[in-house]
Write a structure and sequence with these properties.
alpha/beta, 3 helices, 19% strand, flat
Length: 97
């Protein structure tokens, strides 16, 4: 029963995102980061692909997306600051890493 409620809650949340694609992009902001290439670890196959897919889907439903892939520390901090500036005007914010 708990799993059913969790799945139902997630479905309702996702449906509410798709139900209002006419909101201005500045009302919804997202920071999407996909790091597949790390300096001291093997290359990961999916994070960059997943981040690209997520950013595309979020843009389709009206999000203003700050996107970054394979970022070093300095570039990640820059994207986080860029996202932070947009939060002041946002009614909804999402972070995907």
């Amino acid at each position: 029963m708990r799993q059913f409620l969790l799945v139902g809650s997630i479905a309702v949340a996702v449906a509410s995102l798709w139900a209002q694609p006419t909101q201005a992009a500045t009302d919804r902001v997202a920071l999407v980061i996909g790091n597949s290439a790390y300096e001291n670890a093997p290359q990961l196959a999916n994070p960059s692909n997943d981040a690209s897919d997520m950013a595309r889907a979020l843009r389709k439903i009206g999000f203003d997306v700050v996107e970054g892939q394979n970022l070093n520390k300095r570039d990640m901090e820059h994207k986080i600051r860029e996202f932070g500036h947009k939060l002041d005007k946002a009614g909804l914010a999402l972070f995907f890493y």
